Structure formats: C-alpha cells, structure tokens
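Good morning,

Attaching, inline, the backbone tokens for the sequence recovery test we're adding to the shared suite. The designed sequence is right after.
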C-alpha cells in the first residue's frame, strides 16, 4: 500500500515517575508524517493500574480521531505495569495499533514480576498472552494489531525522521522526559 507523506499518526508514551508516585502522565503526540506536530495531549494514569487503555482511547478519540491512520505505542506497559490492551484499542477505533519496543520484551520476567507484586496478576498475564509475539524490524521490535507486519514496517519508515522509531513516539518521549526536571 502507498502512504502519503503527511499521513496522520499518533504516538503515545508515558512520563518518567518515581516509586512514591501514585500516578503518572501519558503523552500523545498527533503528527502528520514525520515533521508536522498538530497536537500534544496529556492524561493521568494510575501507576501499575488498569486505566491506560481507557486513557489512550480518550486521547485517540480527540479532535484528530478521523485523521489518525495508525496508533504507535511505546510498548504495551505504561506507568509500571498499567498494561494497554492493544486488541481493545484496535477493536474500539478500527485504527491499526503498533507497539514499538527498543528491545525484545522478556515475557517470563514480566510474568514473574506480575506474580510477585500484583494480586490482579492473572488478568494482566492473560492480556499479555493475548497479544501477538513481538517481531524484530531493523533494530527494534514491534507488535501489531489491525495491520500486517510488512505494512507496519512501511509505516514506521514513513513516519520516522532520524531515529529508529516514529517521530510522534520520539516527541512524546522527549516531552515526558521534560517532566523529570520540573520543580
């Protein structure tokens, strides 16, 4: 499929937090292609909670909803172990969801941590196991719902600038890091 240069995409990442925080921010950057930022949105999520899916849906269903052709997520966990249900996000929006990770997630390690620290671990593990296995692409890993792997790779190439990840995700990450030094 051929994608126009200014394809509408949104990238969602979380802001850093410390162990005493009860909540953190997720940041959504809506862009056209890899160079035009049209909106940056913020929502608070519960650290290790269960609300990231709903908050991501609120960001996505904002004023640019009809122009979004892909939703890029920085992995599937936000604010610690607040797992975004990428299947539900796709089912409710009918927009392809592509989770991008710098390194391959260690599912066994994640399951072990969930069992050790969370009473609701069966629900979280079941969700993780329902997602497609992350696949390597160049020097990142991706999980996609609503789009095939080859198309997802084309979209990543189309929406990145000088980074290995889509520019909308990179900007959300930068904005999130800005909160580290806030006084």
């Amino acid at each position: 499929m051929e994608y126009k240069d200014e394809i509408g995409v949104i990238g969602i990442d979380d802001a850093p937090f410390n162990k005493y925080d009860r909540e953190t921010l997720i940041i959504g950057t809506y862009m056209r292609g890899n160079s035009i930022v049209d909106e940056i949105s913020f929502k608070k999520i519960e650290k290790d909670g269960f609300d990231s899916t709903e908050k991501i849906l609120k960001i996505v269903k904002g004023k640019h909803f009809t122009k979004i052709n892909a939703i890029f997520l920085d992995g599937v966990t936000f604010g610690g172990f607040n797992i975004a249900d990428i299947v539900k996000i796709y089912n409710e929006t009918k927009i392809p969801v592509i989770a991008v990770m710098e390194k391959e997630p260690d599912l066994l390690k994640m399951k072990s941590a969930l069992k050790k620290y969370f009473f609701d671990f069966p629900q979280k593990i079941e969700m993780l196991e329902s997602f497609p296995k992350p696949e390597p692409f160049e020097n990142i890993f991706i999980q996609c719902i609503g789009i095939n792997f080859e198309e997802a790779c084309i979209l990543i190439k189309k929406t990145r600038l000088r980074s290995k990840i889509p520019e909308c995700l990179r900007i959300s990450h930068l904005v999130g890091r800005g909160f580290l030094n806030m006084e």
